Amino acid sequence: MNAIEIRNLTKAYPLFTVDDVSLDVRQGYITGLIGPNGVGKSTLIKMMLGIVRPDSGSVKILGCEMPKQEIAIKQRIGIVSDDCFYYEHLTIHDTKKLVAPFYDKWNDSKFKGYLDQFELSPKKKIGDLSKGMKIKLALAVALSHEAELLIMDEPTSGLDPVFRREMLDLLADMMQNERNSIIFSTHITTDLDRIADYITFINRGKIVFNEAKEDVLERYALIKGDMELLDSDIRKEFIGIRETAVGFEGLVDNRHKAAQLFGNHAVLETPSLEDIMYFTAKGGRVHA
Amino acid sequence: MIINIILSNASSDPIYIQIMNQIRQSILNGDLKAGDSLPSIRQLAKDLQVSVITTKRAYEELEKEQLIDTVVGKGCFVSGANKDFIREQRMKRLEEKMMEIIRESKELSLSQQDVIEHLTLLFEEEQTP
């Protein structure tokens, strides 16, 4: 069962295109959508939510068609983004009075609890909130109407490390129910990656992979060694490579093959998601 | 129920292996007894701040080793397989490793005496803190 099913989604802009993207976001798990800035992460999320209209393709959320069943879908999802959808001149309290009636399952005491926990004063005006506080407010709203699916666009941007950790607990709490799902996008790899089950890597408007994080980290390898090891054939094995006067560092997506190829002559390491992102984005540019 | 799991970022072992090893250790040394319940996959993921797939995989591997049982709708429990069985399993694994050492030693043309002496040395080193 999938929480989100995207099929052949395309949106062309003058300078870049989200190109024929198909993606399944699994129910019961946390999916991290990673990629450099400006490769289509936010556009993809906005198309899921009906904020940007795709040129072609379809989106299904929790088994319902977007945008045909948009109202029913939005009852059941929570959206966290630093793009604030609320009126700047209203207080948090007034915003709640405005928003709560839209949700059938609004839980007022839960919302109050989150405001307390996040140290948000109901009297504060939306316009006076910092970026981090806006994220907290969006999270409080999202968690207060029993959303089954949380869609978060760059949720950690503007959050201090203390709250980022707290957020991990809140998200893990939500995931205690195996019918719930979370998808978040990020361009920096943070502690959030630690709790992500699946990683979807998007680069230049295309999906590079959508796999269990453990499989990704097992498949890729970071190789470091002396320049003498490199020739034109060996270079072809790399997705991206950084060569300097003191050696090279490169990424391959077949650890097994690389281990045979380099044996004990080079250092093989498990890359971080950031390494994978860096070399894929950079490597792509070199071969373009 | 006593269960301590400490994950190290410095370890070269993947996280699921670290979880597996530590639960296995707790079962083998008797901290966890047959019938003891283990935290649910999702609760453990929350406590350790790791992904659900990671803890799920650790449990699946332990299940394959017949160290734990999963009862649908009730959770995970330390398997009723008795301690002798567990020790036997462990001895078997140790023997396999010893066989490997013997084979490797022969390739390096070390005598039985050489290997024993080397092992004695390592034993002593291991004991000094």
Automatic annotation (TrEMBL), chain A:
Source organism per UniProt: Paenibacillus lactis
Coiled-coil blocks: none
Keyword Ion transport: no
Residue ranges occupied by any ABC transporter domain in the UniProt entry: 1-229
Protein name: ABC-2 type transport system ATP-binding protein
Keywords on record: ATP-binding, Nucleotide-binding, Transport
Record's keyword annotation contains Cytoplasm: no
InterPro entries found in the cross-reference section: AAA+_ATPase, ABC_transporter-like_ATP-bd, ABC_Transporter_VariousFunc, P-loop_NTPase
Domain of life: Bacteria
GO MF term set: ATP binding
TrEMBL record, chain B:
UniProtKB keywords: DNA-binding, Transcription, Transcription regulation
Pfam family, one: GntR
Keyword Signal: no
Location of the HTH gntR-type domain: 13-81
The keyword Cell division is assigned to this record: no
Gene3D superfamilies from the UniProt entry: Winged helix-like DNA-binding domain superfamily/Winged helix DNA-binding domain
Name listed for the protein in its UniProt record: GntR family transcriptional regulator
Species of provenance: Paenibacillus lactis
